[in-house]
Specification:
It contains 14 helices and 16 strands. It is of the alpha/beta class and about 400 residues long. It has 3 domains: about 120 residues, NAD(P)-binding Rossmann-like Domain (Rossmann fold, 3-Layer(aba) Sandwich); about 150 residues, Rossmann fold, CATH 3.40.50.720; about 80 residues, 2-Layer Sandwich (Alpha-Beta Plaits). α7 links the parallel β7 and β8. α1 packs parallel to α12. It starts with a strand and ends with a strand.
Length: about 400
């Protein structure tokens, strides 16, 4: 029986996936779990128990998870890309429209009027000119990051009559070809800044992307640009954003992660981290999280990992050995030599790497002795070995 610790609520449809598998117990009080499911609770303080095999973020961002420490301990960290992408896309589009049409400010003004219907009506007609704003149709939107959310934004903005410019240096050729039907993809990010009436950010938060948009980047944007952040707060230099708002360089800033200074600024429109907060997104991500956990624990297959390479293929009839190890010369040869010495034949083999870490799966048509697993674990550079029966 596998034990899965939950730090936040897991949608019923996700729990049902575990119930169907029959070999799992989900609870929030488990001390030494086989897996962890988490929404937004920070886990940097937790001890990584010896049984722990995986942590799944029911969502996209993994900045609340100690990814580097997990890698060193041989714990696979997953996220659920795309599960909440539509939710974020919808709210981002709504925020852009409301920002450009001054919807938030207009509502506050109307609330401040007299409670008398006739007085309010006449005043509204006289004063509404102040809150007129432009349409999005025909405007140029620059999208930083064309992953699950950014690509959906590109499609939707194009369908709404906008000119779409995108920047993402990590796209493969096939993805570029697909997006090019409705997005002008630029290799120089400065080109995006120079032509965009609206700039929206959809990149992950990591060390490389902290303060990705700062004072220098804002200076390259159009005067009166609308800046949107429904990704993560620290991706922007938030002090630089306030300075640009004060100077008028930024017409309006919309964010799901406002700072105290931004909450006081009249040109900042904000929501309380609602981007992915829909029942549909919770359900989609919960199902993905459950499926990823089960497939990794029971088969060693990896999909949507943020610290290990994705490896997934059907098992042979016998045991499977899964090895997390350093990505260095000679490792695979050492494993296969040990298998040969034990008189075993490898039915299937796959080896993939991700930066300094590699993952190897060895499939057999029969039983594998525990002694072989112990020998592999003792190889210099091996982080963790699992024998899956």
């Amino acid at each position: 029986m596998y034990q899965i610790k939950t730090y936040d609520n897991v949608a019923k449809v996700g729990r049902d996936v575990f119930d169907d598998a029959r070999n799992y117990v989900l609870a929030d009080e488990i001390e030494n779990p086989d897996g962890i499911l988490v929404h937004s609770t920070p886990l940097h303080h937790i001890e990584l128990g010896e049984k722990l095999k995986s942590i799944v973020r029911i969502g996209a961002g993994v900045n609340t998870i100690p990814v580097d420490r997990c890698t060193k301990a041989g714990v696979c960290v997953f996220n659920c890309p795309g599960g909440n992408a539509n939710a974020v896309k919808e709210l981002t589009l709504a925020a852009i429209i409301m920002a450009m049409r001054n919807g938030f400010q207009a509502q506050q003004w109307v609330r401040s009027l007299s409670d008398e219907e006739s007085a309010a009506g006449s005043v509204v007609e006289k004063g509404k000119e102040v809150y007129r704003g432009p349409e999005i149709m025909g405007k140029t939107i620059g999208i930083l990051g064309l992953g699950a959310i950014g690509s959906r934004m590109a499609r939707a903005c194009h369908d709404l009559g906008m000119k779409v410019v995108g920047y993402d240096p990590y796209l493969n050729h096939a993805r570029v070809q697909e997006l090019s039907d409705y997005t002008r993809i630029v290799k120089d990010i400065d080109e995006l800044y120079a032509v965009s009436d609206i700039v929206t950010v959809h990149i992950p938060l990591n060390e490389q992307n902290k303060n990705f948009v700062g004072a220098k980047e804002i200076a390259k944007m159009k005067d009166g640009v609308y800046l949107i952040n429904y990704a993560r707060g620290p991706i922007l230099d938030n002090d630089a954003v306030v300075d640009a708002l004060n100077s008028g360089k930024i017409k309006a800033f919309v964010t799901d992660f406002p700072t105290p200074a931004q909450m006081k600024h009249p040109a900042v429109l904000f929501t309380p981290h609602l981007g992915a907060g829909t029942p549909e997104a919770d359900e989609n991500c919960s199902i993905m999280a459950a499926q990823q956990t089960i497939d990794y624990i029971e088969n060693g297959n990896i999909s949507n990992s943020v610290n290990l390479p994705d490896v997934s293929f059907a098992r042979a009839d016998g045991d499977r050995i899964c090895i997390i190890h350093a990505n260095k010369v000679g490792m695979l040869g050492a494993f296969t030599e040990m298998v040969t010495e034990n008189g075993l034949n490898i039915e299937n083999l796959v080896n993939k790497s991700r930066n300094d870490v590699a993952y190897t799966i060895l499939d057999f048509n029969g039983d594998v002795p525990e002694e072989l697993v112990e020998k592999i674990q003792n190889v210099d550079g091996v982080i963790r070995v699992r024998l899956i029966k």
